[in-house]
Design brief:
This protein is of the alpha+beta class. It contains six helices and 20 strands. 24% of the residues lie in helices and 32% in strands. A hairpin with a 4-residue loop joins β1 and β2.
Length: 320
C-alpha cells in the first residue's frame, strides 16, 4: 500500500499533466478530505514537479543514461558520526532529484532499521539523526526546506532566513530557524518536541490557529493532534544531543504503549505487548536504559503493580 506522501506525489503528477477526468477529480477530492495535511503535501509536490530546474535535471538524466548506483552506507552505533546525506543509501531505497546547476537536494528518503540509528547531513548543512525504525523524506526547494518524519529524529538546523526549515509529522508542523531540536512521533497523533538550542514554532495541522513557540530548554507534549491543552516542561540543555542518542529513554508522563515503541526502536528482536489493551494507556515517568528492555519492563511493572509473562510465541506480555 502506498504511503500518503507517495499518493500525494502521484496526484500532483496527474494534476500537472492535466489528465484528471470527472471520476478521478472526485476521487482526488475524497482523498483530500481524509486529512487536512494532504492539501499541503499535494501543493508541495506540485511545486517540486513544476520547478524548471527539476525539468532540466530530468532532461540531463535522460540524456546521460542511468546514474551509477551509490554505495551502501551502514549506520554507525552511538556515539554517532555525521555523513553526507547525498552519500546515504541506508536501509531503504532513496529517490533522488538534484539541481545540477546548484547541486542542491530536492527530494530524498532516509530510513533506519530497528536497533540502528542513521546520521546524515542535508545539502543545506543541516544535520539529522534518526532513531531506530524511523524515516524522513525531504523536499527542499528555493523557498522552503520541508522534512516529513515518521518516528523520531534529532535535527541541527543550518540558518537560512530565505528558506524556513519545517518538520512535519502526521499531526503537527515544527518550524525552526537555526536551532537544535528533537521530534518524537507518538501513538494516537501525539508528538513530543524538545528544544536544545534556539526556538521552534509548533502548529497543529488540524487546528492551524493553534501555535506554540518553544525556546531552548522547553519540552512540549501535544496529544490528539492539538495544542490548546499541551503541557510544556523544562529539560536539561547542557547535553549536545537527546537522551535516546546516548541509549536512554527520558519518559515524562509517557504511555506504556509509547514506552514499548521506544524500546522496540532500539532493541532488535525485542517483542512485547499487553494482555489487556487498556494497560497500554497507563502512564509512566522515569529514566531508563534501552540496552536491557526486559529489565526496563520489569521495573515498570513493579512500579505500576503489574506482572510480566510470556505468551506461547515468546512475546513478553504486561499483565495485571
Amino acid at each position: 500500500m502506498r504511503t500518503t506522501e507517495e499518493q500525494a506525489a502521484l496526484w500532483a503528477d496527474r494534476r500537472r499533466r492535466g489528465s484528471l477526468d470527472a471520476d478521478e477529480t472526485r476521487r482526488l477530492e475524497e482523498w483530500l478530505a481524509a486529512g487536512p495535511e494532504r492539501l499541503e503535501m499535494l501543493d508541495l509536490h506540485g511545486r517540486v514537479l513544476s520547478d524548471p530546474a527539476l525539468a532540466a535535471a530530468m532532461r540531463t538524466v535522460a540524456a546521460e543514461g542511468a546514474r551509477p548506483v551509490r554505495k551502501a552506507w551502514r549506520p554507525t552505533p552511538r556515539p554517532f558520526v555525521w555523513a553526507s546525506f547525498g552519500a546515504v543509501a541506508a536501509a531503504a531505497a532513496a529517490a533522488v532529484l538534484v539541481w545540477p546547476s546548484q547541486g542542491r537536494l530536492v527530494h530524498e528518503t532516509l530510513a533506519g532499521t530497528v536497533g540502528q540509528t542513521v546520521q546524515a547531513s542535508f545539502d543545506d548543512g543541516s544535520l539529522v539523526q534518526l532513531n531506530g525504525d524511523s524515516r524522513v523524506r525531504t523536499a527542499f526547494g528555493a523557498e522552503r526546506r520541508d522534512v516529513y518524519l515518521k518516528g523520531e529524529g534529532f535535527f541541527a538546523v543550518a540558518k537560512d532566513a530565505r528558506r524556513p526549515f519545517s518538520v512535519f509529522t502526521a499531526t503537527h508542523r515544527i518550524t525552526a530557524l537555526g536551532t537544535r531540536f528533537n521530534v518524537d512521533e507518538r501513538s494516537g497523533g501525539a508528538v513530543e518536541v524538545s528544544v536544545l538550542e534556539g526556538r521552534v514554532e509548533v502548529v497543529a495541522l488540524k487546528h492551524p490557529d493553534q501555535r506554540r513557540v518553544l525556546s531552548a530548554g522547553a519540552r512540549l507534549l501535544a496529544r490528539d493532534g492539538e495544542l490548546r491543552s499541551a503541557a510544556t516542561t523544562h529539560l536539561d540543555v547542557s547535553a549536545d544531543t537527546p537522551d535516546w542518542t546516548q541509549g536512554w529513554i527520558d519518559a515524562e508522563d509517557m504511555t506504556l504503549s509509547d514506552l514499548l515503541v521506544e524500546l522496540e526502536r532500539q532493541s532488535p528482536g525485542f517483542r512485547a505487548g499487553f494482555a489487556d489493551p487498556e494497560l497500554s494507556k497507563s502512564r509512566i515517568s522515569g529514566r531508563f536504559e534501552t540496552d536491557q528492555p526486559e529489565k526496563v519492563l520489569a521495573v515498570v511493572a513493579d512500579m505500576q503493580g503489574l506482572t510480566l509473562r510470556k505468551d506461547a510465541s515468546g512475546r513478553l506480555l504486561i499483565d495485571r
